[in-house]
Specification:
- There is one protein chain.
- With 435 residues, this protein is α+β, with helices and mostly antiparallel strands.
- Helix content is 24%, strand content 25%.
- The two termini are 38 Å apart.
């Protein structure tokens, strides 16, 4: 790159790389900075990379349905063939069990009908036929291992579920970010990796650029914070917390990997399953394993961390709790003595809905609070962030009159104010990883 960039993007995870790609396609000279040595090697690498369509809010559902289309047509979207190969979207379907806790999925069904998203309603017999390893006994509420009632049935059985056939997962989330970075570079974007931002620079009442750990200064009229679990620290550096009613914090999460029960190939025949009765979700994992995550029931602690670089990366009893909760549903599950899986950080907002917005500092933008449920939306989030930056830099007051953004694949317009830093906490949220 010759001269100063038009925009500096802090973060080269999947959403940061998508933002660089979309701005570069619009002719912007972008410079992406990341403290990791390779794109996608932060929290993106630890993502479960699930692509699903069911959300409790209509806007969230629309955004996710739009996002699906880019993963389905991944190679076409990138417009450039990465010589290191492409991440693969595996369309397994996403099965969500109907429970009292999710309102028997009435709102999710209504959202899908409104948006024309395919879904099927399954009874218990069909669930068992498709997943013969499953026992549908009810155990709600979810409990921890030290609860004397852990593992005790609470009466009856789960009777039905909804299947979204277009759900699935991406097999290599880090590679997907690298694919986006490669595509962005093909459009003229520049990346500097292994680089730590230590200050946000100001001049004349707006952002001026960044200072790096080695003391170097990089100048640009636009800076975009897509720093994942470091986002709150970067926002504090910029001095933009003052008008934010929604904030973000890094949250430690543990994901379990266990072998599929003998006689069943979950990698080939399994699917995404969301199960609020036992407060777990799962998906196939390579090597005929099952990946198990928590749906954050009230009994589980939320281990927010102060330091997004020096947190404890060891598994805890949460690993065993999640594994044994899932074993309630799959009694033949074997629990290995060695804990395997992922320990990483989420960048979680107060209501688990992201912030895609400008800030009180002109020229400084944020795509924050995205972890846990926004990986799937990375391509459309990047496209929307590019549109938002151009909208605001053209002199429009996004706070007073939020950008109305058209989702090109599904032909629906959304109010980007839904993702405002100044919004009230959205009471329609699940207040969990489900978003």
């Amino acid at each position: 790159m010759t001269g100063s960039p038009d925009a500096i993007i802090i973060g080269a995870g999947v959403i940061g790389a998508a933002t660089a790609f979309e701005l570069a396609k619009r002719g912007w000279k972008t410079l992406s900075l990341d403290r990791n040595g390779q794109a996608g090697h932060g929290s993106t690498a630890g993502s479960c990379a699930i692509v699903r369509m069911h959300y409790s809010t209509l806007d969230g559902t629309a955004f996710a349905w739009e996002g699906y289309h880019y993963w389905r047509d991944w190679a076409d979207y990138l417009e450039a063939r990465d010589p290191n190969g492409l991440a693969e979207f595996r369309e397994t379907g996403c099965l969500v069990l109907k429970t009292e806790q999710n309102g028997q999925l009435a709102r999710h069904i209504e959202n899908s009908r409104t948006l024309g998203i395919p879904f099927e309603e399954w009874d218990a017999a069909r669930i068992r036929a498709r997943l013969p390893i499953y026992d549908l006994t009810r155990y709600h509420p979810a409990r921890r291992l030290d609860d004397p009632d852990f593992g005790e049935p609470t009466g009856g059985a789960v009777a039905a579920a909804v299947m979204w056939p277009n759900g699935g997962y991406v097999n290599d989330p880090a590679l997907s970010a690298q694919n986006l970075a490669h595509a962005a570079k093909a459009k003229g974007a520049t990346f500097r990796l292994g680089t730590e931002v230590t200050a946000i620079l100001r001049e004349g009442g707006r952002v001026k650029g960044v200072r790096l750990a080695d003391g170097a200064e990089l100048h640009a009229p636009v800076v975009i914070n897509v720093a994942g679990p470091a986002s709150s620290r970067i926002n504090a550096m910029a001095g933009v917390l003052g008008d934010m009613t929604i904030t973000t914090r890094p949250l430690k999460q543990e994901v379990v990997h266990v072998p599929s029960p003998a006689g069943f190939d979950f990698e080939r025949d399994g699917m995404i399953v969301s199960d609020s009765d036992i407060a777990c979700y799962c998906r196939p994992e390579q090597g005929n394993h099952i990946l198990i995550g928590s749906e954050d029931p009230p009994c589980d602690p939320l281990p927010f961390v102060e330091d997004d670089t020096g947190y404890d990366r060891n598994f805890t009893e949460q690993w065993r709790t999640q594994a044994l909760r899932y074993a309630q549903r799959v009694p033949s599950l074997g629990i290995p003595s060695q804990m395997r899986g992922v320990v990483d950080l989420y960048d979680a907002s107060d209501d688990w809905i992201p912030i895609y917005d400008r800030s009180m500092l002109p020229g400084f933008y944020m795509a924050c609070g995205t972890s846990g449920n926004q990986y799937k939306n990375a391509p459309i989030a990047g496209k929307m962030m590019a549109a938002l930056v151009e909208h605001c830099e053209a002199g429009n007051d996004h706070d007073a009159r939020p950008l109305q953004f058209r989702l090109p694949c599904i032909g629906r317009e959304i109010d980007v104010g839904f993702y405002s830093r100044k919004r009230e906490i959205n009471r329609e949220s699940s207040f969990s990883v489900l978003g």
